[in-house]
Structure prediction request, 520 residues.
Amino acid sequence: MKEDAQDIPPCFVPVEKTGLFATFRTDNWWIQPLIMGSILIGFGIYTIFVLMLEHGTIGDHKGELIYYEDKGAHYISPISSPGPNAVPDYIKELWILPVSLLFIWAPLGFRATCYYGRRVYYRALFANPIAVAVDKPIKSYSGENSFPFILQNAHRYFLYLAILLAILHIYHAIESFTFGDKFGIGVGSLLLTIDALFLSLYVCSCHSLRNLMGGNIDCLSCANYIKKKGTSWVSYLNQFHGTYFWISLISIMLADFYIRIYLGMWGNPEIFLLEP
Amino acid sequence: MKRKIIIQRGEDPDFFMHEFEIEGGPGMVVLDAIHQIQAEQAPDLAVRWNCKAGKCGSCSAEVNGMPKLMCMARLSDYDNGEPIVVKPMKTFPIIKDLVTDVSWNYEVNKKILPYQHPDTDDPRMLQEDVDRVQEFRKCIECFLCQDVCHVLRDSDMKDEYIGPRFLVRNAMLEMHPLDQGNRLQDLKDRDGIGLCNITKGCTEVCPEHITITDNAIIPMKERIVDEYYDPLVWIWRKITGKSN
Prediction:
C-alpha cells in the first residue's frame, strides 16, 4: 500500500509558499505588527512635528508652547521636559536646533535600546521577522554583534538617565496640582500624573534594572535585604514591561498634545480649584 | 464530522502535499487525526510521537503554519470548513513525512560546559535560589523554539548560533547557586547570543510556557554586558575586588 507522489491526486496547497512574508499561517498574524508599527510611526511623526514647531520650521511659535502658565497653571509639555529653562543661556545661544533635542535623545535612546522596544521595532519596522513562522524578506543577518546594533548594550546607561527623567516627570506632575497659591486639579494635572506614573512603572520594570538589582547574582539568598526585595519587585513588574511601554508612550503623547497643542494653541484649561 | 487534513509527505527532494478526509470526533487532537490516517489510509505515513500528553516533546510540527505539539492542537481550534495543513518543522532536515532530524541539537548540547560542583563537603542551596532556575527545567526539548527562531529558520546560522533552547540551558547552569562554571565567554564568542534580537518568537510557541526571552536570554545578555561591555562595572569590580 506504499504510495508515492505519482499516486497522489494533486493538492491545491503547495509544498512551499513563496513571495513576501510567505507563511502557512491562516490567522491574522499581520494585525499586531501593523498596530504596533503604526503607533511607533505615529509617535515618531508627532515628535518630529513638535520639534519643528519649537524650531519655528512650522508655524510661528518658535521657542514657545513648552510651558503653559495661564490661570496660574504650571504645566510643561512632557516631551520637552525639563525644557529650555533648565539650559544655561550661553548654551541656548550656541545651540541652533530645538532646545528639546538636548534632552529628548535620552528617553528615545532608552526606548530604542529597551528589550521590549527591540521586539516591537525589529518585528514591526524591520520585519526581522515580522511574526512567528512568517518568512523574513532579508535572510542575511548579523544580529546585535556589529554596529549599530551592538550599541544596544548601552541600555543600562540610558536607564540611569531614564531614572532621572522619571523623577523629573513626578516633579512636574506634583507641580501641576498647584495653581498660583491654590491647590487644584486640571485635565493637565491628570494627564501629567498618568504620564509620570506609567513612565515610572516602565523604568522600574526594566530588564537592566532587574539585572543590576540582583539578577546578576547566582545566590540570591546570600544577597542583602535590599537586593533581594528589589529583585523580587522588579521581577514582578517586569512581567508587565511591555504594557507599561505602550501606556507610557501613549500617555506622554496625549499629555504633550493637550498642553502644547490644545492649551497652547486653541483651548482653555478645565481646572477645578480647591479653596484653602 | 468530516475534516480535511493536508499533510506534507515524502523524502528529500520529493515532497508533496497529501490530502485526507477523516471523521473528526469531540476532543480530537491533530495527532489523533494523524493516527487515524495512519491506521486507515496511509500506513506508511511517518510521524514521531510518544506520550500524547504534551510532555515528551516528540510530536512537534507546524499546524496551519504555527509550530505546535500535534498532541496539544485540538481540531476544534480550527475552522470546520477549512482544511488543516500539517507540515514538519522547517528548521531541521526532513527524514520522512513529518519526521525531522533534530540531532544537531544534541551535538550543540554536548558543547555546553556541564554543571560544575563546588569543592565542599556540605553543598546547600535554598528554595528561593532553586525557584529561579526551576522554570528552565520544565523544558521538554520539543525544539519548537529552535524551529521558530528566525536566526536558525530563515538565516540558517546553525554554525554560529545555538538557539533559544540552549541559551535556556546555559541560563539554568549560570544561575545555579552552586555551579562553579563560567559560560559567558562561550555564550558571547562561540554560541552567538548576540544574534538573538529578542523578538520573542520562542516564548510565544513554548508549550511549557517558559519565559525564554525575559527570564533566560535577557539575563544572560545582561551578564555579558556586565562582563564585557560595561566599563563602570569593570571599575567597580577592580575597586571592590568583588565578582559575581
The radius of gyration of chain B is 21 Å. Chain B has a mean pLDDT of 94.
